[in-house]
Input
Amino acid sequence: MARIAIVLGPDFEDVEFSQPRDALEADSALVGKKGGVRATTDIAAVDADPSLYDGLVIPGGYSPDHLRTDGDLVDFVVTIGRSDTPVAAICHAGSLLIEAALVDGKRMTSWPSIKTDLVNAGARWVDEAVVVDGTLITSRNPDDLPMFCDEFLRVIDGEAS
Output
């Protein structure tokens, strides 16, 4: 069974955490920005060994903006992102990938408000429901979650998109 890290900070987008978590059949229990979903962290980024994970999911909401100021968390994302480990980012999560310097030359999508930030960081932004560029999977918004989860699972399983 794959071991997947889901990085969360305050005000994550509830459904952008819960649907991928449920698709991965992971255990849960921070409070989402809508207050409907709560999560308990299993381990702090400073204590986590990135080499032990088979994938990374970054939910959107305000969480990625909070997390991009946490040096230990950014280092964790950098280490995973520079390996062949699948990274799945939805909505505003691209802002954390910008901080981790993982978007240059990547084809990706996001919530429209961070499009310019991604382009300025070197990404090739497209308006598509789900974009897979190697081991990077990105999506625009909660409406895209079913396809986003399916693509992430395909990449985790080593299948081509």
